[in-house]
Structure to design on (299 residues):
């Protein structure tokens, strides 16, 4: 055995002894680069699969939602931009034949941002317009002193938010029950129905502002226009969910949707806005009564 061979054996034995003494040391083998490349490739494939899954969920609109008791669930309901809100507002009072509001504008991404602020704006519009209307009706009356009626805010809020939540809740419960019996029916989530009803109330905001003008003809004309526009959106949205059901049930559901929509408009007009002709007649009668009384005393 030559000197070079003995030196190699000594180096090998020294390296083996160093490894035994340092068991925690990191050793690199010849096939490590191959394994590391395989590991990097496997990791890269895993990330690509996750990215492709996320892209697929986003494109299909079927992103997994958080449970309803978590903050993330309600955070997604307010995650909407101004462009989407504007399109949904326009679509809520411009019904087009064959266009379903839920399928075209909502899909699987309903929001509460638009419905909440639409309802809040409508509440204050009703209260403020009702107070201004009362002032215009009674203006010029003897000893009249304008006092704003803040009870109208509470009454309007109760009526609007009850309609925007309780009616969708009842409709969602009924559609869910019928969907279990007839599987071919189109199903809507509760938030989708709330979103549709919330945006359908937008057309009443300009209509209520017009009610300030003390003209019964103008008021009823604005009511009819608002009912036809928003009511058509509701009918075209929920008709596909019940058209496969029995005819009498389908007609009953559509009739209930329209009747409740009409009652809301007529109820707001009756409760918050005075009738101009009746109040004006009272104004003209009061001075006559005073005059007659004074003349009787003089006699």
């Amino acid at each position: 055995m030559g000197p070079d061979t003995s030196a190699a054996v000594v180096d090998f034995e020294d390296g083996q002894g160093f490894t035994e003494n340092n068991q925690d040391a990191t050793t690199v083998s010849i096939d490590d680069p191959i394994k590391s490349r395989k590991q990097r490739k496997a990791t890269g494939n895993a990330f690509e699969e996750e990215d492709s899954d996320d892209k697929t969920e986003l494109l299909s609109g079927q992103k997994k939602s958080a449970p309803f008791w978590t903050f993330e669930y309600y955070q997604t309901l307010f995650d909407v931009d101004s462009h989407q809100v504007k399109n949904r507002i326009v679509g809520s009072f411009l019904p087009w034949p064959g266009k379903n509001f839920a399928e075209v504008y909502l899909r699987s991404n309903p929001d509460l941002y638009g419905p909440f602020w639409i309802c809040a704006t409508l509440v204050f519009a009703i209260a403020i317009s009702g107070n201004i209307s009362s002032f215009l009706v009674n203006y010029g009356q003897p000893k009249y002193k304008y006092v704003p009626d803040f009870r109208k805010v509470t009454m309007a809020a109760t009526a609007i938010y009850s309609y925007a939540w309780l009616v969708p809740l009842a409709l969602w419960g009924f559609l869910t029950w019928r969907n279990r019996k007839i599987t071919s029916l189109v199903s809507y989530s509760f938030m989708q129905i709330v979103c549709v009803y919330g945006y359908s109330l937008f057309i009443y905001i300009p209509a209520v502002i017009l009610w300030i003008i003390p003209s019964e003809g103008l008021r009823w004309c604005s009511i009819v226009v608002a009912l036809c526009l928003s009511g058509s959106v509701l009918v075209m949205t929920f008709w596909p969910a019940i058209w496969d059901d029995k005819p009498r049930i389908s007609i009953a559901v559509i009739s209930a949707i329209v009747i409740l929509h009409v009652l809301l408009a007529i109820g707001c007009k009756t409760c918050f806005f005075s009738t101009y002709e009746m109040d004006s007649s009272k104004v003209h009668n009061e001075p006559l009564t005073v005059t007659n009384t004074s003349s009787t005393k003089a006699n």
